[in-house]
């Protein structure tokens, strides 16, 4: 992704020309809500989400010359998610956090068992709690898909991974969530 | 296709991301396999639950204000360096004045109309942004059209038509007094998929019946129209298509059965 290969030499004092300002206001600013929503689900704290979004917008202004496309939403959201992941790493420094590995973080065959069948007894609360329990990489694609309605291609752009990875993360994320709901339902018995 | 292959493709099938051939093969298998169709059913219910139960967190007003301030600040210094950067419409307006003087009176008849709509669109968008920023979305918060409509009585010298479109997925959430085109106007607030729509209405005796195509103004979509002696301006960050569906219902509610029959999404 260009934003990662770009050297951090651009100063925070980078200015937008009035033309850029107009384009930024038209193409990027309208997605502030989408940015905040994604940040809320990634960092899971209102204040940290606000911090991340403001930081992401500063980065977006700084790197606006790199914005060539027309899809301001995916462009902004990719900056937001990177800012959030940096913040998460800072929060849990060093070896505390195991690098995400789909093979490790997906359910093993033997304990896959029956998934939860969502009934009327499955409350909104338990769905929210279930989402909190799964790996942030799964939560990310689920939020982008279900709440933002992005296509696999757009999600791939935002998360900076190939489309095949988007597909497998969504499948595994849903499966994990269904398993988490099943466990939750059993604990409540 | 065997069960194993189908299970691997449930997610993209559900998301409509399979190629047509694979999609048909999965659909075909699901017809005759109870266990796979139970699995897709679970996934579909999960999807619905996520869309329905998870909150869409809108940016708090304070964050919005901070971000807008940052963007303005980034542009501000540039402007200070380069001198005042006049927006293009202001040049257009100045040019119109020059042409009008030089070229005769016919320009006067045309330019004010074009500039008038442009200026009104700007005012409508400002009104929309203001309502979101200042935490002042509604003066009367009600989903009941019979509460909202009488509220305007005595505050305006006309009675705006107020209809709830909840059945089509565009519920009324309230009303507000706003100020556009140098006069107090009725602002009706609707919601669609968590996007806010501001709809401004005021009387317009002379204009022709019309429904203009959407224009984009600072990233917001704006549609205006005239119907039965009322002028309508609708503004939202909603996509153009869904806003157009709303505008058709809102501007001419009587045309609803034929034109507004679009199922609500999500």
Write the layout of secondary structure elements.
The complex is a heterodimer of chains A (189) and B (266).
Chain A: H1 2-5, H2 18-27, H3 32-43, H4 46-62, H5 72-91, H6 102-105, H7 124-133, H8 136-147, H9 152-159, H10 163-188
Helix pairs in contact in A: 3-4, 3-5, 4-5, 5-9, 7-10, 8-10, 9-10
Chain B: H1 3-8, H2 10-14, H3 20-32, H4 34-53, H5 61-82, H6 88-103, H7 106-133, H8 145-152, E1 172-180, E2 183-192, E3 195-203, E4 210-211, E5 215-217, E6 220-227, E7 230-236, H9 240-251, H10 256-259
Antiparallel strand pairs in B: 1-2, 2-3, 3-7, 4-6, 5-6, 6-7
Task: Provide key terms for this protein.
heterodimer, A: 189 residues, mainly alpha, 2 domains, 10 helices, B: alpha+beta, Phosphorylase Kinase, domain 1, 7-stranded antiparallel β-sheet
Description:
Chain A has helices at 2-5, 18-27, 32-43, 46-62, 72-91, 102-105, 124-133, 136-147, 152-159, 163-188. Residues 1-12 of chain A have low confidence and may be disordered. Chain A contains ten helices and no strands. Helix content of chain A is 65%, strand content 0%. Chain A is elongated and about 55 Å long. With 189 residues, chain A is mainly α. Chain B is an alpha+beta fold and 266 residues long. In chain B, α6 runs antiparallel to α7 (106-133). The longest helix of chain B has 28 residues, at 106-133. The two termini of chain B are 31 Å apart. Mean pLDDT of chain B is 78; it is low at 78-92, 95-115 and 255-266. At the A-B interface, α2, α3, α4, α7 and α8 of A face α2, α4 and α5 of B.
């Amino acid at each position: 992704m260009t934003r990662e290969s770009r050297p951090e030499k651009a100063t925070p004092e980078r200015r937008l020309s009035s033309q850029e300002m107009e384009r930024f206001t038209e193409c990027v600013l309208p997605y502030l809500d989408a940015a905040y929503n994604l940040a809320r689900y990634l960092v899971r704290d209102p204040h940290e989400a606000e911090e991340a979004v403001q930081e992401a917008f500063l980065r977006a202004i700084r790197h606006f010359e790199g914005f060539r496309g027309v899809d301001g939403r995916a462009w902004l959201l990719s900056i937001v998610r990177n800012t959030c992941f940096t913040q998460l790493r800072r929060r849990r420094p060093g070896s505390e956090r195991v690098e995400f590995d789909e093979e490790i973080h997906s359910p093993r065959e033997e304990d896959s068992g029956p998934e939860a069948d969502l009934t009327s007894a499955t409350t909104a609360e338990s769905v929210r709690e279930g989402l909190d329990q799964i790996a942030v990489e799964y939560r990310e694609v689920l939020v982008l898909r279900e709440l933002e309605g992005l296509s696999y291609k757009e999600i791939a752009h935002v998360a900076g991974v190939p489309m095949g990875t988007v597909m497998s993360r969504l499948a595994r994320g849903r499966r994990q969530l269904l398993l988490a709901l099943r466990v939750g339902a059993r604990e409540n018995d | 296709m065997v069960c194993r292959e189908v299970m691997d493709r449930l997610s993209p099938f559900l998301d409509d991301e399979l190629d047509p051939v694979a999609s048909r093969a999965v659909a075909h298998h699901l017809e005759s396999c109870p266990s796979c169709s139970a699995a897709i059913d679970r996934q579909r219910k999960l999807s619905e639950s996520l869309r329905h139960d998870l909150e869409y967190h809108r940016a708090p007003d304070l964050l919005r204000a901070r971000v807008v301030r940052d963007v303005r600040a980034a542009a501000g210094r540039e402007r200070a360096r380069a001198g005042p950067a006049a927006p293009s419409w202001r040049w257009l307006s100045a040019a119109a004045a020059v042409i009008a003087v030089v070229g005769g009176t016919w320009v006067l008849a045309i330019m004010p109309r074009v500039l008038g709509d442009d200026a009104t669109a700007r005012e409508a968008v400002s009104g929309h942004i203001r309502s979101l920023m200042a935490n002042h979305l509604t003066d009367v918060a009600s989903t009941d059209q019979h509460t909202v409509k009488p509220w305007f009585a005595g505050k305006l010298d006309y009675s705006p038509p107020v209809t709830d479109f909840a059945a089509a997925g565009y519920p009324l959430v309230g009303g507000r007094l706003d100020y556009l085109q140098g006069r107090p106007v009725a602002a009706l607030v609707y919601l669609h998929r968590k996007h806010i729509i501001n709809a401004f209405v005021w009387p317009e005796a002379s204009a022709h019946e019309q429904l203009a195509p959407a224009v984009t103004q600072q990233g917001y979509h704006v549609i205006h129209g005239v119907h039965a002696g009322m002028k309508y301006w609708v503004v939202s960050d909603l996509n153009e298509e869904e806003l157009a569906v709303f505008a058709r219902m809102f501007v001419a509610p009587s045309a609803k059965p034929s034109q507004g029959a679009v199922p609500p999404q999500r």
